[in-house]
Write a structure and sequence with these properties.
This protein has 224 residues and is of the alpha+beta class. The protein has one domain. The protein contains seven helices and seven strands. It has a seven-stranded antiparallel beta sheet with strand order 3-2-4-5-6-1-7. Helix 1 runs antiparallel to helix 2. The longest helix has 28 residues. The two termini are 30 Å apart.
């Protein structure tokens, strides 16, 4: 399974009275997909993730904006609860079938963790958290990008073999670098808006496959 990437945020004041306000402020910053805007589901767990959700709403028929989600969650999201919403944003991805890059909707999952939820889950994972999707949208595959490029390992699937064959052409690799940098810019632009609009005390970009995900993104962004 491909590695995932995340943004964790710790807020200055996440008391039960202020938590909904901060969650709503974060949701209002989301750079929705141009073709799939709005939040498509809302789930609220109480106590911990093993418990049956106290609220589950499928919003795909009529996706909501941030204010609409907060209004639905208001009577359910308390200090011992975790809320999750889903939506889409647009990122460039390589299409192995056509050998081209397409800017397409990719899923986002956004969480709010009350301080009493799951024995203080927030302390390690943040009051607010975003699953940004696959790590390779921002770091690329097979160590091909950045200033410390490595020789790619042997392909483990026909799809990977086609990808590596395509990237052997310099013009394709150059396009891959630029489209990946555009994804990084999209992410960094969003982080800057979060820092401006959300009462964040500290935030952390990380991924399952990189020791220092943010430094890796900066490195790729800097290479020309």
């Amino acid at each position: 399974m491909s590695n995932q990437s995340y943004l964790n945020m710790w807020c200055r004041d996440f008391s039960e009275e202020r938590a909904l306000e901060a969650f709503g402020a974060l949701l209002a910053t989301v750079p929705f997909s141009a073709v799939r805007p709005g939040f498509t589901f809302l789930t609220v767990h109480a106590v911990d993730a093993s418990e049956t959700p106290v609220l589950e709403m499928d919003l795909r028929a009529v996706p909501l904006d941030a204010a609409g989600v907060i209004e639905l969650a208001r009577d359910h999201l308390h200090g011992d609860c975790s809320g999750e919403v889903g939506c889409y944003w647009d990122l460039f991805a390589f299409d192995g079938t056509t050998g081209t890059f397409k800017r397409e909707p990719q899923p986002l999952a956004i969480f709010s963790h009350g301080e009493e939820y799951d024995n203080g889950w927030w302390a390690e994972n943040g009051h607010l958290q975003v699953n940004l999707g696959f790590e390779h949208f921002f770091t690329g595959h097979a160590g091909l990008l950045g200033s410390r490029r490595s020789a790619p390992a042997a392909a483990e699937s026909p799809e990977e073999a086609r990808f590596l064959e395509a990237m052997a052409w310099p013009e394709n690799l150059e396009t891959y670098q630029e489209k990946t940098r555009e994804n990084i810019r999209t992410l960094f632009d969003w982080v800057r808006r979060i820092e401006k609009d959300v009462p964040v005390e500290r935030l952390q970009l990380w991924s399952e496959g990189e020791n220092n995900f943010e430094a890796r993104l900066e490195e790729i962004l800097a290479v020309r």
